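Private note to self, pasted from the team thread so I don't lose it. Backbone tokens:
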């Protein structure tokens, strides 16, 4: 059964942990007076758990690799658009000599998928363009088209396909890393829930301090100080962004 972290995302838990830990240190006398369980060992275990989750959460080498792969792939896709622009210009000039209408050549559709960063869609569309280039090669060459343009598009497309597969692998690795260590996130959340609950009780007569132990208040602080990245985000289809956990009503 998956853990429920109020409205927080998994990647935000270390930030929440550090925020609450600072308040706990400030108010530790009250906590220890309430229960001897809130001792040095408790604090040390808490800090250790934050550090564990930070390491898991970052998955730094996977995130860095994924960003590099994605940047390279998107750069290539932009370059392919330029190559297709030239192909389109030659096809327009040869329109009357083509075996099909220029509007059916498929270039517009292929470019649209590239701009949407939809690799699968592009790989499907470019097949039609490449076939139409082959079928109309002589008519295009009369207008100045050079076969090197087509060869470059082919090699660049193969590279995009390769990078897309690498991207999928890295996203899968990152997701698996987090999924296989959900227990560590749960341990940290258990500590945070305990301190939040006790802190609200102990600071009941001090509204400002009590708020600092409320997750609704902490959520606003976290979102202001650490804006969550978009999917390498939305375009990459979700890697560096862990799914938000189901909402739990705060007591």
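Design output:
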């Amino acid at each position: 059964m998956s853990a429920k972290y109020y409205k927080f995302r998994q990647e935000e838990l270390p930030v929440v942990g550090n925020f609450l830990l600072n308040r706990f240190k400030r108010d530790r006398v009250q906590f220890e007076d309430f229960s001897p369980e809130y001792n040095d060992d408790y604090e040390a275990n808490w800090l250790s758990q934050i550090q564990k989750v930070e390491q898991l959460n970052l998955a730094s080498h996977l995130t860095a690799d994924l960003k590099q792969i994605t940047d390279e792939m998107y750069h290539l896709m932009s370059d392919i658009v330029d190559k297709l622009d030239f192909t389109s210009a030659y096809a327009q000039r040869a329109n009357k000599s083509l075996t099909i209408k220029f509007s059916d050549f498929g270039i517009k559709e292929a470019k649209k998928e590239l701009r949407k960063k939809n690799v699968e869609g592009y790989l499907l569309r470019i097949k039609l363009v490449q076939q139409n280039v082959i079928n109309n090669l002589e008519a295009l060459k009369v207008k100045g088209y050079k076969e090197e343009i087509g060869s470059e598009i082919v090699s660049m497309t193969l590279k995009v396909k390769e990078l897309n597969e690498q991207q999928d692998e890295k996203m899968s690795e990152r997701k698996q890393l987090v999924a296989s260590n959900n227990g560590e996130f749960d341990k940290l959340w258990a500590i945070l829930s305990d301190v939040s609950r006790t802190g609200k009780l102990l600071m009941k007569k001090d509204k400002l301090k009590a708020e600092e132990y409320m997750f609704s208040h902490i959520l606003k602080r976290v979102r202001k100080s650490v804006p969550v990245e978009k999917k390498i985000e939305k375009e990459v289809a979700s890697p560096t962004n862990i799914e938000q956990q189901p909402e739990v009503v705060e007591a």
